[in-house]
Structure formats: structure tokens, C-alpha cells
Automatic annotation (TrEMBL):
It is found in: Cell membrane; Membrane. This is Probable membrane transporter protein. The chain crosses the membrane at residues 7-33, 45-64, 71-91, 103-121, 133-166, 172-190, 202-221, 227-242. Pfam families: TauE. It comes from Desulfitobacterium hafniense DP7. It is a multi-pass membrane protein. One of its GO terms (cellular component) is plasma membrane. It comes from the Bacteria. Belongs to the 4-toluene sulfonate uptake permease (TSUP) (TC 2.A.102) family. Keywords: Cell membrane, Membrane, Transmembrane, Transmembrane helix.
Amino acid sequence: MNIFMGLAIGLLSGFFGGLVGLGGGIIMIPLMVGLLKINQHMAHGTSLVGVVFTGISGAITYSLSGSIELVPALLLASTAMITARLGARYATSLPEWKLKRSFGYFLIFVTIVFLLKPYLGEFSLSSTVWIKTIILLGIGAFAGFLSGMMGVGGGSIMVPAMVIFAGMGQQMAQGISLLAMIPASAIGAFTHNRNGNVHTKILPGLVVGILPGTFLGGSLAHILPEVALRIIFAIVVVYTAIKNIRAKKPETAVEPST
């Protein structure tokens, strides 16, 4: 049963992620919490494992079309791998209701960035090589922490930041982000697993479901109007965000010691 549930969640998250160009943990986490009734910490850790395979599949696809540059990906990953571990440890230290609220606010932020995505290129900046290097290291550090904490790949942060601050094209930024998220997500997943926050029984189905789901969603994305896709994404994610933000603090909650 766990494998079949993982397969269903992988298919749904992969399909929706491919449909709107995002996904990963943003879709997997609400599905795991809602369908499997597992706690928020477990969902974040398990999601990161799935994101590793999403990154591998996506990076291969983008590399075949020449939309990946190795050096920027290595710069992003070098700092992201460090901060992803810190983010995962911080997530573990939070009580579930706080983690739920944090994830809800993160979803609102992602929705705003996603809706503004078509206009980001108008504000892109040009920089010298060494300034771009510093920018990429900073982006990696910030995105890595959020990746480990929120159970996502970090692409929702990396891609717009690279377009705006490093002057990269949208397609190239997406390919670089997918490659960089592989080691960062792996480190975050490993840290979550050490803290018992990975649901190993659903992983086989989850990984198998992500690949065809992403392909189907991406195929349909070329048929539906882009405006419709953005509206669908905004409605679903904002609804999920509100549910998480309204998470109540238990009356007997005990704050973890720091």
C-alpha cells in the first residue's frame, strides 16, 4: 500500500510540477501530509529525496538541449550543500505547527515570484565575472538553507535570483538550478534521514511516479494557455498555504530547547 501511495503522490506531484514548471516539494509535501497523514517534518525530509531524482532527470533533459553551464552550477552547489544541512537541522528543531506556518508563508512567496516570472527578465542586471561569482555563492547559500528547511529543491529561489542578479536567461537558469539542486538536496535529505524524517517505505513508488508524471505534465503544458496554468497554480498553492498558515499551536506544546 505504501508503494502505491508513493506512486500516486509521485505521479501527481510530477504532473503538476511539469504542468507549471515548478513542483518538487511544493506539491509533494501537501500531498504526503494530506494523503498519508504523516507529520510535517517527515514530509519535508521525504520530499527532498524525491527532489534529488527530479533534479537528475531534469538536469539530463536540459543538458541535452545545451541549457546547462557547469561552473555556475558548481558555485551554487558549493554553498548550498553547506546551508542545506543547516536548514534541515533548523527544520527539525521547530515544533510541527511552526514548520507548517513557515511552509505556508514560503508558498505565498513562491506564488508571488511565479506570477511575476514573465516580467523578471526586464530587470536583469549585467555584472563582471567576479561579481557574478559572489552573487551565485550568495544565491546558493540562501536557496540551500530554504531547501533543507522547506523540503524543496530551491529552484523557486535560484531561478529568479539568477535571472535578476546574474543576468542569465530563463532556460539556462532553470537548467543550472536543476543541476545544483542535486547535491544540495542530497545533503538535506541525508540530514533529515539521520533525524528519522524520511518515510523510506514510499520512496520506491515516489521516485518511479515522479518521472512519467513530470513528462505528462510538461506535455500538457504546451497545450494549455500560460495564463490558465498560472491561475491554476496560484489557486492550488495559495489554498494550501492558507491551510498551513492557520496551523494552531497546541495548548500543551513544549518548545524545543536550543
